[in-house]
Structures are given as structure tokens and as C-alpha cells.
Amino acid sequence: MRQGSYTVASTKNDTIPLLVTVQMMSETGCTIGETSVNAIACADDVALMSENPAELQLLINIAAEYSQNHHYLLQPQKSVVLQIEPSNRKKQSKSVNLTLNENPMPVVDKSPHLGILRSTSSKNSQNETTDQNITKSRRAAYSLMSAGLHGENGLDPITSLHLIKTFIQPILTYGLEVILPTSSNLLKLEKFQKQLLKRIMSLPICTPDPSIYILSGFLPIEAQIDQKALILFNNICRQDNSNLEKKLAIRQLTVKDQSSNSWFISIKKMIFKYGLPSPLQLLNCAPKKFQWKRTVQIAVYKYWKEAIISSGKSYMSLRHLNIDAYNPGEFHHLLDINTTNDPTRETTRLAIKLKLVTGTYILQNKRFRYTENETPICKLCDQGDETLCHFLLDCQILEPIRQKYFHQIDEILHLISKDNFRTLSSHDKIQIILDCTLHYTGLKGNSENIVKLDAICRQMSYALHIARYRSLDIKRK
Predict the structure, then answer these.
(1) Which of 46, 25, 36, 26 is nearest to 2 (CA)?
(2) Alpha-carbon distance 61 to 42, whole Å?
């Protein structure tokens, strides 16, 4: 779209006849190629656009006269002038003086239009809308804290993640499929989402990012925006050839090259990224709405599933997590605690289990690497370095607690694979305690025996954690 000054006017009545009147003046206002885009509306919001202040005043007069003839008022607080500066113009243009019903219209540097903050440049619009969405999402998250949307002492992770998906994600990504934020804004959005998910699952900020998606089943913000943008493009393809958006789509995809900043060129790159049919083919023969949604979902899920699994396998700290179990839209089986009548206690236990499986639980050998005057020796038994293996299997101080749970684990393993837990190697024992589906790759995470085994291992991990901290407190005293 060409750069120019435009007015955003909010009305209380149907605006379609007004648009017909304005757009009949094809020589007035902005054009893209031979397509007039001098007046754009949705519901009762109208945007009048022109590169010439005199022409823009004429369009405003038409809107004002139309409102008087049909006995409704244009909102003076929302009727503002936003002067957009072209990217190739070094000097700032002079401010314009426009009037509505003989009253001067304020010139602003940003204004909301259909929930999107429009500013004096495309870059500023992206920055302002991104910051606005993050602020609104943070407020929505805070408003749900009273319902239990917080860490260890709140709702169980699966319920909390459902709340995020239902009430926070739509706010965070609202309107972004239209402006397609740059990489810097995507990083800000992604940072907010990752921090929120880590807090909900009671994980520290240093937790590897792929593990957050693997456990929650969420997609990165970029994937969510891509999916919405591709669905929006299909809505344009399914319109009549006389429709304004479809005319622009055909024109831009035919005339513009890959270096263009056009929205349609970005969609073209997105389509090639996910291996979908060419945009011109979609314009000529648009698939049905639900068929296209399903096609896009499969393509996006496949692309990001491969990317996240590949990224996750590069982290040594995630070697005990079944990374291949990641399916976008599905929660990891480790988050399933529906077998208990006390979800609050199980949520607290789960937090320790997730720290262990993601490699973020602080043991003495890790503390030794980053803290002066510390040794890797276990402070409980003083017999060897306190590694994950030592904590879960070898520490003699924790042996009485450990043996009680080993007996229960052995009973369930006999039902699953006839294995004897006590005769397995240390690596296999640790893997079964943290994520047994990686050891028994043929088992489904939601089977009854797997759920029971996860529950026992979760209780054992928490019991060892509590005993360790109590013993350390006694020693300090």
C-alpha cells in the first residue's frame, strides 16, 4: 500500500453506502496499480486514505455529509489524522490541517484501528502492536491468577495450559497475521510465551527452550502467526474476482518480486516454506475453508515438529526426556496427573520431576561449576560426587526412602516387560525413573501401567528431594 495520510473514523451505522460513494471517485485518494484503496471499512470503522491533503479533505467532507444525511454522528475522539511517512523520504513532511464538520482534527502518531495500533510507519506499527499485545496478554494472565493460574501451588499444568491456550494466546497473536511482525518483534513475543510456560510448569528460566514446547505441546509464536496468515490468505482466495483484496492479491503476486515488502509476497515465501501449492494456483482454484485449515495445520505441525525435535536433541541436558514424543497440540505424558485425588500435591511433586528430566535440578556437581568455595562431593554422605545418578540411586543417606519405591516400581515393570528393576544398569534405572517411554519405546504414554509408573517415580523423586533438603538444613544448624 502506498504511504499517505489517512483518517480513521468510527461511526454508529452501516458504512457500505458511504464506501460506494467514495470509491466511485476513483481518481481521488490512494491507488495500488489501477485499484482504488481510498476507503477501507470493517463494521463501523472507516479508513480514508490519500497522498494529497486536499483530496483527503474532500473524502472527509463526503463522510461528514453522508453522516448528516443519515442522522448519525462520527466520533470526534476517534476521528484522527495519522500521517504516514514513506520509507524512502529522508525529510519529514509538513503536518496537515484537516477539519471534520469545521472542527480541526487532531494529528496523532498512533491510533487503534480494529485492535491494531497503526503508526507513522510499518515498523512503528509492528512495534506498537506487538507491545500492546504483550501488555494485554500479561494483564489477562494476572487476572487468571486468582483462579489458580500460577506455579507450584496453583492448578495442575494441563489445566493451566488449557487456560493459556483459550484466554491468553488469542490476545497475544491478535492481528499479527495482518502486519506480520519482524524477527525482533517475534523474539519479544516468543520470550513472553516461553517465560509464561516455564512459570506455569515451575521450571527455571534457564530451562532449554525445546523442552517447553515438547512438554506443553505448544507451537512457537512464528508458527501460530504463519498458520493464521495462511488461513487469512485462503479467505481472500475464496472471494469473488471483483473483490478489492483479491484484486490486490493478483496484482501484487504478478508484479512484485521476492525483495518486496508486500504482505502477499510474505505469504508467497510462507507457502514455499511449508511446501504448499503456489499462491497463484490457490487464487485460481481456492480449496474449501476446512480442507485448507487441515492442510495448513498438517504442514505447519510437520515443519515445526521436525525443527523442535532436531533442536531438542542437541541439548545434553534433555537426554532423559523422550523428545520424539512431541506432537504439536498434545501434552507430554509426564504432565498427566489425573490418577490422583489430590492434584495440588501432585502438581508440587511434578515440579521436581520436571526439573530432574530437563536437567535444571541443582545438585552439588552443578553448583560446583558456577560457585566458588564449593565442592562436587555430596554433602549428605560425603561419598562421591553428587550427580544425578548418585542422588537417585547411590546416596546411602537416602537409601531407606529409595528402597520403598523400588519395590513398587519392580512390581509394575513385571506387568510391562517382565524386567527386574534391580538388575538393570544405572542408566536404564535413571531413564525409567525420569521418563520410562524413552526406555520402552514401543509403549504409549497414556497406557494405564505407564501412568501408574510415572506416578510412583514422581512420588519417589519428590520424597528424595524433601529428605535431601531436610538433611541439609539439619547439617547447617
Answers:
(1) 36
(2) 20
Q: Identity (one letter) of the amino acid at 413? A: L
Please compute the mean of the pLDDT values over residues 175-187 and round it to a whole number. Answer: 94
CB 137 within 8 A of CB 163: no
Q: Where are the beta strands (DSSP E) in 90-152?
A: 99-100, 103-104, 107-108, 110-113, 116-119
Q: What is the mean pLDDT of residues 414-424?
A: 83
H or E segment and range at residue 322: none
Nearest CA among 216, 209, 450, 444 for reference residue 330: 216
CA 474 to chain centre: 44
pLDDT at 70: 83
Distance CA(111)–CA(47), nearest Å, equals: 11
Number of Cβ within a 10 Å radius of residue 374: 14
Residue pLDDT, tens place only, 331-358: 998 998 865 667 788 888 999 999 999 9
Q: Whole-angstrom Cα distance, residue 477 to residue 210?
A: 40
Could you tell me if residue 434 is left (phi over 0), alpha (psi between -120 and 50 degrees) or otherwise beta?
alpha
Grid coordinates standing for 182? 519482524
- Can you give the pTM of this predicted structure? 0.88
The model's pLDDT over 257-312, given as tens digits with 9 standing for 90+, comes to 988 889 999 999 999 999 999 999 999 999 999 999 999 999 999 999 999 999 99
- Cβ contact 128:37 at 8 Å: no
Q: Residue 296 and residue 294: Cα distance in Å, rounded?
A: 5
Which among 362, 467, 355 is positioned nearest to 404, based on CA atoms? 467
Residue-wise burial string across 293-330, b where 16 or more C-beta atoms lie within 10 A, e elsewhere: eebbeebbbebbbeebbebbeebeebbbbbbebbebee
Residue 85, pLDDT above cutoff 70: yes
Joined together, the cell numbers standing for residue 90 give: 529522508
- How much of the chain exceeds pLDDT 70, in percent? 89
Cβ–Cβ < 8 Å for 453, 436? yes
Strands 5-10, 80-83: pairing is antiparallel
pLDDT of amino acid 421? 87
Q: Cα torsion at 433, 438, 443, 447 (round to 10°)?
A: 40
